[in-house]
Amino acid sequence: MAPRSSIDITFDRASQNAKMYRLWSDPGKPYARNLIANLSELPPYGSWSLGKDDWKDDHVKGKENCGRLYHGELSWYPVPGGEVVPLPLHVAVKWMRGERMVNQLRHEAEMYMGPLHRLQGQVVPIFYGFFTGKIEGVHIGCIVLEWCPGNEWMTFGKPDQKELADRWEAVQLLHRAGVKHGQLYKRRDSLRLWEGRHFLRARDGKLRIVDFQQARKHDCAGSMRPHEDLNIHLDHKCRELCFAEIHLRRAIEGGPDFKTPWLPY
Ligand SMILES: Nc1ncnc2c1ncn2[C@@H]1O[C@H](COP(=O)(O)OP(=O)(O)O)[C@@H](O)[C@H]1O
Ligand SMILES: [Mg+2]
Ligand SMILES: [Zn+2]
Which InterPro entries would you find in this protein's record (predicted)? Predict the structure, then answer.
């Protein structure tokens, strides 16, 4: 049997309806430890749906191909000689039901383990594992990530020069690692609140880019030099890096009240 690791996930541990599920890593892809996670709901309830907004209360039953983001505390079963980690370790758990979304999570996990490996804990969250299982006939999958307390992006205002500089720096590192995110900037002529949802702040206050479900490996056409002519580089390949740079440049040239329109959605 190909080796696997497990995660034991408990929902609502303190309540009467506590539920525990065991999920597994992909065959032949074990992690160093078998994990234990205690999860709790994030308020406000509706804001943390993943994919469609059709989540029903049950973790397993309900519409397929959607999910929830949970906050959790992570620990693990002891391993001989294993290190002692200061607890609790706060994590985000992306929990999905339905085969299509589970496969998207697998893709995201491959990004974290592959090209993003060295950026974990710097520009992207630390990745603790990807686990799946079939529960009551339903495909379930989850990804466990470093918790970013600065995830209240609905309350972020227009990003200032410093924020845009941090975002530009982070996007550059992503592209240098050969990854295009695919959901960071929509337009070159305006900034949107919605874009902030993938630029979060970790506990150390540093930026973390999240959500690699639609990310692609990518040979960066933009290189690491500042673009001489931004229009030349607006090709498919490096639009993302280019937009990050355009927004920063506008903020630098326009001063504290730079004119890029701000769209609160
Ligand atoms: N590691 C994390 N820590 C805290 N909040 C997170 C974390 N990852 C994602 N989130 C929050 O959950 C939202 C949805 O997660 P995301 O990975 O973008 O999934 P999707 O786009 O599929 O809904 C993010 O916009 C962010 O607000
Ligand atoms: Mg997202
Ligand atoms: Zn690029």
Answer: Kinase-like_dom_sf (IPR011009)
